[in-house]
UniProtKB/TrEMBL annotation:
GO terms for molecular function: cysteine-type endopeptidase activity. Residues 25-46 are annotated as: Disordered. It comes from Coprinopsis marcescibilis. Residues 32-41 have a biased composition (Basic and acidic residues). Residues 58-144 form the Peptidase C14 caspase domain. InterPro entries: Caspase-like_dom_sf, Pept_C14_caspase. Keywords: Apoptosis, Hydrolase, Protease, Thiol protease. The keyword Hydrolase applies. This is Peptidase C14 caspase domain-containing protein. GO terms for biological process: apoptotic process; proteolysis. The lineage of its organism: Eukaryota, Fungi, Dikarya, Basidiomycota, Agaricomycotina.
Length: 332
């Protein structure tokens, strides 16, 4: 027997059935519709089973109506929905208020949300397999907003090419700053527009970019980690003025590189934490004819041990050498 879909008219109903019939598979997919009158009627007919034997529920509830950035429109139902969810948990499911974190509007800052996740992670009262509810009401999240934010310019998308290359540090050649020079391989690891690599310890990579458009373009690159929702800048994303340092691709065949070459951008390293066999993410490049400040886009993850893509922190190797000057002495 599956979930009783004819009694599910809201996400609140769905939550109640999942909590009280956790072993039942869904008999068919459904998208609950929000009907407040129906929700109140169904809730009044529910007789909750005794709480003994049920694992404790912990919840992080977020509701945002008012947005101060990105020009997003004001909402009116997100905060009431979040408050209604908290009320339902406390009054109907008898979840202790101490096990619920409610963040609304300005209280739902990025740091507050991160702190909410950390609080759940470090809570000694949460045991393995205990249910945790993360409820969000508002515009699309920071991660998905910037990942999906795009502008259809086929000339840029079709006229810029990429090569993802393994790179090596030289043991004998150094640049003018004293760092070992970095040499790229010639084998492009991108196949069919996708990068699929086996992670190896201490292996470094670079990205070659070629611009075949008729415009000189500035570029920036960030990595979106799909596992911990961090956004890591691989280039300097802050441009304080049009004369600040930025990265330029010359038109009609110009090239630039991340991880090697004259721009001095550090190489890329890949790492999987213990217990993780596969990780997914996206390199996202921004191209523009004028410098763009993207310093508001990067974000850290509350789970620091899940970082998969990062810049190689380069250090100067100890160096030594000798100079031999032949000497010939002659009698006058």
């Amino acid at each position: 027997m599956g979930l009783t879909w004819n009694k599910i008219t809201s996400y609140v109903d769905l939550l109640w059935q999942i909590m009280n019939e956790p072993s039942l598979p869904a008999s068919r997919p459904s998208t609950p519709r929000h009907d407040e009158s129906r929700e109140q009627k169904v809730a009044s007919q529910v007789t909750l089973p005794a709480s003994s034997g049920r694992p404790p529920l912990f919840a992080l509830i977020i509701g945002i109506n008012n947005y101060e950035h990105y020009g997003l429109t004001k909402l009116y139902g997100a905060v009431p929905d979040a408050e209604a969810m908290r009320k339902y948990l406390v009054e109907d499911l008898k979840v202790p208020d101490s096990q619920i974190t409610l963040l609304c509007n300005r209280d739902a800052s990025r740091q507050a949300v991160i702190d909410g996740f950390i609080k759940l992670r470090d809570n000694k009262n949460i045991k393995k397999d205990d249910p945790i509810l993360i409820y969000y009401a508002g515009h699309g999240a920071h991660y998905t907003f910037h990942l999906n934010h795009t502008h259809a310019n086929n000339h840029i998308q079709n006229k810029i090419s990429f090569e993802f290359l393994r790179v090596w540090e030289s043991e004998t050649e150094f640049d003018e700053d004293g760092f070992a020079t970095i040499t790229p391989d010639t084998k492009n690891l991108i196949r069919g527009g996708m990068l699929d690599i086996v992670v190896e310890k201490d292996v470094m990579y670079g990205i070659k970019i070629k611009n075949d458009t008729p415009w000189n373009l500035h570029f920036q690159c960030l990595y979106f980690d799909n596992d911990d929702f961090s956004i890591t800048a691989l280039t300097d994303v802050k441009t304080t003025s049009r004369y600040a340092r930025d990265y330029t691709l010359a038109s009609t065949g110009g090239t630039a590189a991340i991880g090697y070459g004259s721009l001095g951008i550090p190489p890329i390293t890949c790492e999987l934490p213990d217990g993780v066999d596969v990780a997914a993410g996206f390199f996202k490049f921004w191209f523009s004819s004028e410098p763009v400040d993207l310093s508001h886009v990067p974000q850290t993850s509350p789970f620091d041990d899940l970082r998969h893509i990062q810049e190689k922190q380069r250090t100067m190797k100890p160096v030594w050498g000798t100079v031999l000057i032949p000497v010939i002495q002659r009698r006058s």
